[in-house]
Structure formats: structure tokens, C-alpha cells
Amino acid sequence: MQESMLSSRRSPTHPEEDGQEGGDGSFDDESKTRKSASFGARAFVHTRSALSGQCATVSIFLFFLVSVASLLFSRSRHVLCVSPYDPSTRTLLFGAALDGLASDFGSLGVPWYPTKFQGRSKQGKAVEWSRKDLLKGLEEFVKIYETRPIKNNMYGMGFDHSFGLWFMARWLKPDLMIESGAFKGHSTWVLRQAMPETWIISLSPRHPEKYLKKGPAYVDKNCTYFAGKEFVDFGSVDWGSILMKRGISDLSRVLVFFDDHQNELKRLKQALNAGFQHLIFEDNYDTGSGDHYSLRHICDQYYIRGGGHSCFIESDEARIRMKRKRFWEKAVDRDELCGNSEEWWGVRGYMRDDFNHSNKAISYEEHFQNSRFVESVLDVYWELPPVAGPSLTHQTRYDPARASDPIIEDGRFGLFQRFGLAKLETSVFNGYTQMVYVQVSASAS
Ligand SMILES: C[S@@+](CC[C@H](N)C(=O)[O-])C[C@H]1O[C@@H](n2cnc3c(N)ncnc32)[C@H](O)[C@@H]1O
Question: TM spans, by residue (predicted)?
């Protein structure tokens, strides 16, 4: 059942096969119109020959009918926003609480990336882990999470992303782990739980030990800190010499974790220059939100199912967004989404960086080129699903219409309880922002 729901959400073909990209690699937004026109023209010729000898008014009338029908037909074949969910199942599970909204998901779906993305490599290989592996890991992780030194990690990671980081670090078994953005050290602690023996390099302007004076924090013994007076930004580190000192020659054995609220395009390019291949970004904000340009922003494009947005004030999307805002705190309504000239990409047409201390307007063309670049250098893009459905976690922040299906789906309270998740404070489920794992193509690094 879950499998069939998932497969129904995948893009059936690569967009390039859909003919939505120009042969020179440029995006041709008019290709759909052109297709409609040629279909209409062919229908017109056909209609004319069939009706030869009959009166012109009838032919014109019929031509209009056929053209309208062909337009509708062509549109339904090229609709980009698809429902990521089976609406009837969702309505059943959510019941009256979401009455009517479940069926609206179609216009505001999760951006489903081309087949090579969404956990699949260019060779068609998916990420190695399955939903079953995630479930198994989740059961194990709850007990570990209960022992965390920093119980209240406000402004840092909550449960969902802690699980994701732990799960992926444990699965990938790197020889070295690098984190950028440590705060009090919770994510360092999570990495340590995943890999008890592996060296960590942690970069953060303020050393986590500084927080120890005020309350719980975590400082790791087997970690090199570039923090406090020794702080160096990830992009300025001489990685060659650092890795050599640590005896690392195979960069595919290094995992880099970013939780530093920097422009993720900038970070990706820096990681690429250094030759790193396995990257995790903690705050992968949805379009229209967040304090930095995220991979989710970058990948959200017209040619991707569920991607690209309408700023038309009376559009279905605007209406649905307004409705969803009432239920989900972090849902983005039309006014938050769109700039003065209807820029919907990034955050109202801006590429934010460094906790929004820097803010640069970009054109749609630049934004689109960024997405082409990201696509060209990545083999895998995989968003961590939320650990459990909102009716179980009681979270009301991220909008489930813009996230993938949770690992424990709504309605499965028995499982949620059996895993020990019901014992956790509800606030630990508040921080889900589509944490993403990306694998850089070996040829690009
Ligand atoms: C959201 S917090 C990190 C939370 C932490 N990973 C956790 O799970 O608890 C962001 C951190 O990034 C740090 N930061 C700010 N600029 C940075 C930079 N250029 N490089 C690395 N870290 C940076 C901030 O000082 C802050 O500690």
C-alpha cells in the first residue's frame, strides 16, 4: 500500500523526456504551448478534410470545440503539480480535522524531483536504505535520544533531524565526520552516538564549552574544534592539509554535515572544490521560508512536479495556501511566498545567506541556472521523511502537504507508542525542515 502510494508520486519520466527543456539545455517554458498549438493545428487540418463541402460556420465551430478539447487534453498530460498523497486515504486517516484539505494537496504537492533525484542516482540506483531500515533504526534511536545531555535544544536540532543524522552517519560509516554549526554540541553528540570511534572536526564561531557555564552542553574528546579564537569558516579551511594530517586520502569516506545557516549553493560549491561527496544539510527550508538559500529552494522549479508556484492572487494555490496557513504554522501563504513583482523563488526572489544577514535579489533565470548546476553535480538528493505523522506527534509547524510521507504514518499509534515516541515531549517534533542528504557525482568532485 505504502509502496503503491510512493510509486504513484514519482515523476513517470525524466523532464527532458517530456520535452520541457530546450535542446541547448535552456529551459523553454513555451514548449507546452507549442505542443498544444501543433496538436490543435493537426486537429484543424483533419477536421477540415472530414467536413469538406459543409458550411464554414460549422467547421469553425467544430474547430473551436476540437481546439478547446485538445488544449484540455494537452494540459492534463503536462500538469506539473501532482498530489503526493492518495487523498481518500489521507481523509480517512486525518478524519474531520483536515476535512476538505486532503483533497487540495494536488495543487500544492511536494516538489518531486526528476527520477535521478529523490533518492535515486543517475544510474537509477536508490539510496541504499529502505523505509524498513528507517523504521528499525527509529526504534533503536529513541532509547539513545533519551540519554542526550542537552534536553532542551531550542534553536538546535529536534528529534526528527537528530534521528536522520544518526541514521545516515551510522549507515555510511565514514572515516571522518565534519560538522559546520555546533551550537551547544547536540549534533556533535548525535554523530558520536552513530560512530563511537570516528574523529570529528567541528567548526563553529562559539566553542560549545562556552555554553557549559550556563547549562548543559556537549564537548567531544575525539574532536578537533575550529571554534572561538580558532574558528575558520568551512570555505576557508585548507582541507588538503587537514585531511592529510588525519590520514584521510579517500574523500568518499568523509561525511560533511552543515547546520550553519549559510547559502547551501555556496556550501555545495565549497564542498565540491574540496572534493567531498557525502553531504547532509540540516535546514533544507521550503520555498518562501528560511534564513538561507536551501537546496529545496533551488530544486523547486516549474519543470518539476509540484514545483514552481503561482502568485496570481485568485489562483487555487493562493486559496489553498491561505487555508493551510490556518493549520500549519510554517505553511507559506501567497503573501509570504511572492515578492512585489511576483517573484516566488528563493524567498520572494531573494537568495538569503548567513542567517539572512546577507540578502541578494536573483532573477528567475539565475535561480533556474542554479538548479541546473545542482542537478548536474549531484547523483542523489534524498529528503529525510518526518519520523511520524502530525496526528501522532501533535506538531503543527511544517506543512505535511510539502513533506514526504512520514516513517510512521498517521493512524499507527500502536507503533508510535511501542517505539517509545509517545513518551517524548511534543516540542521535540517541532523542528522538521526536510533535512537532506546529497551525494556528489564522483565525476564532479
Ligand atoms: C542552528 S545552530 C546549530 C545547532 C546544532 N547543530 C545542534 O544540533 O544543536 C547554528 C550554529 O551555526 C553557527 N554558525 C554561524 N555562522 C557559522 C559559520 N560561518 N560556520 C559555522 N557555524 C556557524 C552558530 O554560531 C550556531 O552555533
Answer: 51-73
Q: Quick one: pLDDT at residue 301?
A: 86
Show the low-confidence residues of the chain (pLDDT under 70).
Answer: 1-109, 112-125
Find the 164 Cα to ligand 1 centroid distance in Å: 18
- pLDDT given for residue 253 in this prediction: 97
pLDDT number for residue 113: 58
Q: What is the distance in A from the centroid of ligand 1 to the CA of 307?
A: 29
Establish if 179 belongs to a structural domain. Answer: yes
Distance 283 CA to ligand 1 centre (A): 11
Same structural domain, 236 and 324: yes
**411 within 8 A of 263, measured Cβ to Cβ:** no
Q: Indicate whether 343 and 395 sit together in one domain.
A: yes
Distance 181 CA to ligand 1 centre (A): 3
Write the CA distances from 19 to 26, 37, 78, 415, integer angstroms. 11, 15, 10, 44
Cβ of 331: how many Cβ atoms within 10 Å?
Answer: 25
148 and 294 fall within a common domain: yes
Output the DSSP codes for 226-272: EEGGG---GGGS-HHHHHHHTT---GGGEEEEE-S---HHHHHHHHH
Residues shown for the chain: 445
pLDDT score recorded for residue 120: 46
pLDDT of residue 90: 38
Does one domain contain both 314 and 213? yes
- pLDDT of the residue at 3: 27
Nearest alpha carbon, ligand 1 atom 13: 181
What pLDDT does 306 receive? 74
- Within this chain, do residues 62 and 95 fall inside the same structural domain, yes or no? no
Write down the pLDDT at residue 303.
79
For residue 146, the enclosing domain spans: 87-440
CA of 232 to the centre of ligand 1 (A): 12
Domains identified in the chain, total number: 2
Ligand 1, atom 11, lies closest to the CA of 181
Note whether 55 and 117 are same-domain residues.
no
Residues 225, 248: Cα–Cα separation, whole Å: 17
∠123-125-128 over CA atoms, to 5°? 150
Pocket test for ligand 1, best of 166, 200, 259, 357 (most atoms within 8 A of CB): 259
User: Where does ligand 1 bind, in terms of residues with CB under 6 Å?
Assistant: 153, 155-157, 180-184, 186-187, 203-206, 233-234, 259-262
**Does some domain include residue 148?**
yes
Q: How far is the CA of 262 from the centre of ligand 1 (A)?
A: 9
Same domain, 264 and 158: yes
User: Are 202 and 226 contained in the same domain?
Assistant: yes
**Which residue of 183, 223, 256 sits with most ligand 1 atoms within 8 Å of its CB, as the best mutation to test the pocket?**
183
Q: Considering the domain boundaries, does residue 367 fall inside one?
A: yes
